[in-house]
Design a protein that fits this description.
Elements lengths: L11 E6 L14 H16 L3 E6 L7 H6 L4 H25 L4 E5 L8 E2 L2 H9 L3 E5 L9 H11 L4 E6 L4 E2 L11 E2 L1 E3 H6 L7 H10 L3 E5 L5 H6 L6 E4 L6
Parallel strand pairs: 1-2, 1-6, 2-5, 3-4, 3-5, 6-10, 9-11
Antiparallel strand pairs: 7-8, 10-11
Length: 247
């Protein structure tokens, strides 16, 4: 069992998980074992005393931009993608509550019979009470990604850092799955990410993190216990901050 008593660097964080991560080894949808593994990691963080909120993408079910590329009207496709994030949020809420972690889902698109509407002060109060808050339905507007939603919620919740859990262990010079010579960055500035078009998050999300002075930590969430390790400053990851020295 991991030692959760070690001192933490952050008081409140936002964890952004891509929808594709929840597929596990399946080609589509939600793999319950993978969802439970992420939930177990989140539970460790909460037990350590860190306040945590979540944004989960919807790409394992439906991606708005992909739908638009196939001829769908972009706004309609994006709204479908937002609904996919609600499904993922409910799956994660179920997994967390089954292991005793109090969780609230707040949707940017009101759906009162399913979850709470997004209310900033209520969300902050949930976090202060030690509950996990999952923000669903993106920003509630088409043409904005869940990366931008994560950056926005991190700023609104006054988070100390945004942790982006992906299938790779940081930011690379190229796609490590396609280029074996790709090298991982330990530290980057926001301007490095934007100038080199590294695709850590979309440009608007990176710019918002820069303006809010909130660091982005990119790591692989696929390994059990990786989140807690990276939270302590250990493990393999990439930090994006105002400048390389401060990252």
């Amino acid at each position: 069992m991991s030692d959760t008593s070690a001192p933490q660097k952050y008081r409140r964080i936002l964890l952004k998980v891509s929808g594709e991560v929840l597929m596990g080894d399946t080609p589509y949808g939600i793999d319950t074992k993978t969802v439970q593994s992420v939930a177990d990691d989140v539970a460790e963080i909460v037990k350590s005393g860190v306040e945590l909120c979540l944004v989960i993408g919807g790409g394992n079910i439906f991606r708005g931009m992909a739908g638009a590329a196939k001829g769908m009207e972009r706004s309609s496709a994006d709204y479908m993608g937002m609904l996919a994030t609600v499904m993922n949020a409910l799956a994660m809420q179920d997994a967390l509550e089954r292991i005793g972690v109090e969780t609230r889902v707040q949707s940017a698109i009101p759906m009162a019979t399913v979850c709470e509407p997004y209310i900033r002060r209520r969300a902050q109060r949930h976090l202060e009470k030690g509950r996990v808050v999952i923000f669903a339905a993106g920003t509630g507007n088409p043409f904005f990604t869940t990366d931008t939603a994560a950056a926005l919620r991190a700023a609104e919740m006054q988070c100390d850092a945004l942790f982006k859990g992906t299938s790779v262990d940081g930011v690379y010079t190229a796609d490590p799955k396609k280029d074996p010579k790709a090298e991982r960055y330990d530290r980057l500035s926001y301007m490095d990410v934007l100038a080199k078009d590294l695709r850590v998050m979309d440009a608007s999300a990176v710019a918002l993190m820069r303006d809010s002075n909130i660091p982005i930590i990119v790591f692989s969430i696929k390994g059990r216990g990786n989140l807690l390790s990276v939270l302590r400053g250990e493990g393999t990851h990439t930090v994006v901050a105002q400048d390389r020295a401060a990252a």
